[in-house]
TrEMBL record:
Keywords: Protein biosynthesis. Pfam families: tRNA_edit. GO terms for biological process: translation. InterPro entries: ProX/PRXD1, YbaK/aa-tRNA-synt-asso_dom_sf, YbaK/aa-tRNA-synth-assoc-dom. Belongs to the PRORSD1 family. It comes from the Bacteria. This is YbaK/aminoacyl-tRNA synthetase-associated domain-containing protein.
Length: 162
C-alpha cells in the first residue's frame, strides 16, 4: 500500500470526507498554490520539531503565512531548546521526507511519542490543507474530521496562540 493509499484507507474507514487536488510534485505550499488556487481552505504549515536532546517531539500546524517564533513556542510548551528535527528523525518518527510533513505522518508513529499542536487561528470551520503523505496531492479536510482522525490514532492535541 502506498503512503497515500494508507491515508485514504484510514479516512475511508473513519467515514471522513475531504476534497483532493492532484498536481505535479511540490515541496512547499507556495508551489502548491498555483494548483489549488480558488479552492477554499487554510494553507497550513506543518513543522516537525524536537528538543535539544531529541527526547520529545512536536508536530506544529499553523497558517502558512505565519512564521513560528521558536523561543515563544518553547516558552508556551515549557521547552527551552527547540529545533527542527533532522531528516533521519522525521523518517524514524513519521515515516516522511522533508516536503511531505503533514498530520497524516502520525499514522506511522506507533510509539505515540509526538505531541500535536494547532495554532489557534487555523482552528475554525474552514478546511485545512495537507499533503496526504504524497506531494502530488493536496487534501482539504475539516477540523472536526482531523479531530476524529487524531482520536482514532490515540493522539490528543493542543491549541495554542503563537
Amino acid at each position: 500500500m502506498t503512503p497515500y493509499e494508507q491515508v485514504k484507507s484510514k479516512l475511508d474507514e473513519l467515514n471522513i470526507s475531504y476534497d483532493m487536488v492532484e498536481h505535479p510534485p511540490v515541496y512547499t505550499m507556495e508551489e502548491a498554490d498555483k494548483y489549488i488556487e480558488g479552492k477554499v481552505g487554510i494553507r497550513t504549515k506543518s513543522l516537525f520539531l524536537t528538543d535539544n536532546k531529541k527526547r520529545r517531539y512536536y508536530l506544529v500546524f499553523m497558517d502558512d503565512d505565519k512564521r513560528l517564533d521558536m523561543k515563544q513556542f518553547g516558552e508556551i510548551i515549557g521547552e527551552k531548546h527547540l529545533k527542527f528535527a533532522s531528516e533521519n528523525l522525521l523518517m524514524e518518527k513519521l515515516g516522511l521526507k522533508p516536503g511531505f510533513v503533514s498530520i497524516f505522518g502520525l499514522l506511522n508513529n506507533t510509539q505515540k511519542d509526538v505531541q500535536v499542536y494547532f495554532e489557534k487561528d487555523i482552528v475554525s470551520d474552514i478546511p485545512l490543507t495537507f499533503h496526504p503523505n504524497d506531494n502530488t496531492k493536496t487534501m482539504f479536510i475539516g477540523m472536526d474530521d482531523l479531530k476524529k482522525f487524531l482520536n482514532s490514532l490515540g493522539f490528543s492535541y493542543h491549541v495554542v496562540s503563537i
